Amino acid sequence: MRVAGLYIHPIKSVAAVSVDKVRVGSEGFEGDRLMAVTDLKGTALTARQFPKMLQIKAALDAVGLRLSAPGMADLQVSKEASEATSDTIVWGDAVSSRDLSAEANEWLTSYLETEARLVAFGGTRLSQRYEFVSKNFADSAALLAISQASINALNERLERPITVTNFRPNILVEGATAHDEDLWAKVQIGDDMVIEGLVACSRCVLTTIDPRTSEKASDAEPLRTLMKYRRRDDGQIYFGQNMRPLSQGVIRVGDPIKILERFDHMKIKTDVSLAT
After folding, report:
1. What would the pLDDT profile of 187-210 be if each residue is shown by its tens digit?
2. Is residue 133 part of a domain?
3. Which of 186, 187, 257, 274 could make an SS bond with 1 (beta carbons 3.0 to 4.6 A apart)?
4. Is 213 exposed, middle or buried (0-12, 13-18, 19+ CB in 10 A)?
């Protein structure tokens, strides 16, 4: 097995960025979901409610990031955040955040046609759900891994194939058997990077939105098909494995992957959705 793709999401719920290599810290991929869009009350906005967010591209550079979207002029945003902190709410968790730019707020408000703010992670997150919640704006764990074989197995059942970006993983794996990732308890990537499996990832309506067009599938695919063979007794549909790093370093596309430990059954959570 090997790493076939690596993805970061500079802003929660905007377009994924494919990279050839990425530095991994204790909280996951460097630059992943360290910014979010919120309403004026501090609740994180996502593509579940605003599918157009998937059309926003955020390109990281030395200055900060450049925002682009259909029908909008590009906007350069400085990475310098304000000193004042406030809470952003992500699945009920209070995540400390800092305002980034009034210009970015205006840009997002115009594009999304709702009052919006761009905020940066402020350093703390209080969660009452489970101990492995990532210390950024991710819905749950720091990393999400999916195998290409699982995508292929799904596409064999679909009339209209989807891509891995419908599922917004961080790591795409090549060479595994379909859904083998369900049982990955501990995985080595490259020479010394080790990541730990936590719990299978339950999926939501976001998977039915085409990331290229922001159009929601009228036939509820691929969820409708996944319900037939990936739905568990708790009623949730699971696809992919939530994981976290146990070491720090760099992961590269092409790095070999070795399974160090396996679960004897799929681990799932029944209290809350873990959709990413």
Report:
1. 999 999 999 999 999 999 999 999
2. no
3. 257
4. exposed
